[in-house]
Amino acid sequence: MMAEGSVEILEGFLCPICKADLGTALQLHSHFQEEHTEDQDVLKSLKDLLGKAKKKILKLDEEIFSNDYDGQGTSSPSAHNPGDFEQQELGATRSYTHSFRTIRNNRLERYAAETNKLLIRLDKLLVDLPADPVKRKAHEQAIVPWIDDRDVKLCPTCAKNFHVARRKHHCRLCGAIMCHDCTQFLPLALAKKMTNPAFGHQDGGSNRSNNSASSPSSSVPSTTPNLGILRRSNSNSSLNSVLSLVDTVAGEQNFRLCIHCKQLLETREKLKESRTLKPIISQFYERLRSYQTEADQLAVMYNKMCQSLNCGESTYILNDAQVLRVKLLKLAESIDSLSNKIAILGTKDVENPPRGKTLQLQQMIRTAATSYLKEQLVAIPALPTEMQLKALQDRRRQEVSARIQQEKQLAALEAHQAEMRRKRDSPQRRAVDQVISDTGWGPEAAQMFESDEPMIQQMNIIRNYIKQARSAHRYDEVATLEQNLQELKEEYRKQKEQA
Q1: Which of 44, 53, 103, 335 has its CA 20 to 30 A from that of 37?
Q2: Max mean pLDDT range (107-121, 204-218, 282-296, 312-326)
Q3: SS3 per-residue string spanning 311-376
Q4: Chain center to CA of 259
Q5: Higher model confidence: residue 139 or residue 203?
Q6: pLDDT at residue 62, rounded to an integer
Q7: CA gap 153, 201 in Å, rounded
């Protein structure tokens, strides 16, 4: 039921003019286009009128806003450019840089000075360290004075009472007192490495063995001393002496430290490692470059072997080239995998993902690696199969044999030409020339037969000379010319046989 005087609320896709419910937006659009075509101009004029009124109202609001700002002593509304504002004089300033540096330097010097003191004491403890437990204890007390046991009633770290089961122990670097549960151990090998970094490189194997025997985090040594020499006694002093002996044997390969000294030394070691340790992206990129360098060297050799095998040469073995190709493909997989790791490095970190230049660098490394793979490793030439290699080698043998035969023929032709030149310079040739000079016979007087071969032309010329000599009844010259003609015929026959 509706209350008296209330207006009915209509819902749906309603026509703005006839208020009819059309059901869907498409039907509403079709109904409005068909039924209210003549009313669209009126609606358009109303929309234009409302738009002008809206612009006027907004302009009026801007003027009011600018007037308010002008009343406060600021620039006009047209001067919104920050460079147009009047330059203000700088008021009183105060620099806190000196205060900040003072506080920071004091704190850094405090930690640095304390750490240096610990290192100096540690170095003194390592110098001439006695092996005998009693002498070692006296040596440690002489270097670092210990706090008197009577001055400390509770453990400063855990605030527990000392008693027979919880004895008092002293830090070898600061002399402070702590209980056994709060004791930290520093191996001798690690102490030598801290005071002398070269020691870790010279005696790395022994350091590892010492560290494995007694680690700094372990409060109890892995090996227990031989207690057969001890005698049972009911007195507290005897029990304390026994426990002292056990602690001394347990600390032969370690220095007993408090947690504060241990933290200072560990902080210094971490700082040294952070200065020398390379970021993970640098380590990945160096490995990527090593893969690319190795791939470049192998690719040069592979291309040389592939070209030789495709030419049918027997310099290289097909199996060696196939092994080299497998290595190149494995390197390509490693480069692709490593570059992908670099591209997604740190992206799973929701709180601090890579962004900006770091993300751009990772993407550029991935793009460069992909281009390298496409240009250098993916497009490497294929090797022939065993059957193809055999066919290539047979064809090459035939080509080599044909070339050798051709070279032999050229050598024989050169030898023949040399022989011909020698014969032309022989006495018989000179006799022919003498006959020609005496009689005046020449090729221009002889009947020439067209032929492409010089030897045939020469034989025809000599035949014509013989004919002219017979006509002149000069039979000596005829005999000489016939002998020369016979020699030319023999040489011509030999050339035909060799061809």
Answers
A1: 53
A2: 282-296
A3: CCCCCCCHHHHHHHHHHHHHHHHHHHHHHHHHHCCCCCCCCCCCCCHHHHHHHHHHHHHHHHHHHH
A4: 42
A5: 139
A6: 62
A7: 44
Q: Are 69 and 77 in contact (CB under 8 A)?
A: yes
Number of alpha carbons in the 13 Å side-chain half-sphere of residue 462: 23
Nearest-angstrom CA–CA distance, 372 and 376: 6
CA dist., res. 356 & res. 377, Å (int): 31
CA distances from 387 to 18, 113, 391, 454 (A): 89, 78, 6, 49
Q: What is the pLDDT of residues 458-494, one digit of tens each?
A: 888 888 888 887 777 676 777 788 888 888 888 888 8
Distances (CA, A) of 345 to 107, 277, 288, 334: 36, 18, 14, 16
Please tell me the distance from the alpha carbon of residue 236 to that of residue 341, in angstroms, as a whole number.
64
Q: For residue 233, which phi and psi values (nearest 5 degrees)?
A: -145, 150
Contact 135, 143 (CB under 8 A): no
Beta strands in 101-203 (DSSP E): 169-170, 177-178, 184-187
C-alpha closest to that of 173 among 134, 219, 141: 141
pTM summary value: 0.41
In the chain, % of residues over pLDDT 90: 11
Residues near 356 by beta carbon (within 8 Å), at least 6 away in sequence:
none
Instruction: Print burial letters for 409-421: b (CB count within 10 Å at least 16), e (below 16).
Output: eeeeeeeeeeebe
Enumerate the β-bridge partners of residue 255: 186
Q: How far apart are CA 122 and CA 112, in angstroms?
A: 15
CB 170 within 8 A of CB 256: yes
Name residue 21's beta-bridge partners. 14
Scored b (16 or more CB within 10 A) or e, 124-152 reads bbbeeeeeeeeebbebbeebbebeeeeee
Give the other-Cβ count within 10 Å of 180's Cβ. 16
Tell whether the model's pLDDT for residue 368 goes beyond 90: yes
Distances (CA, A) of 217 to 175, 186, 254: 20, 9, 11
Strand partners, 14: 21
Q: Please report the beta strands in 243-282, taking only residues with DSSP state E, as ranges in sequence order.
A: 254-257
Which residue is associated with the tokens 């703005």? 16
- Reduced to 3 states, what is the DSSP secondary structure of residue 465? helix
Q: Which two tokens stand for residue 12?
A: 């749906």
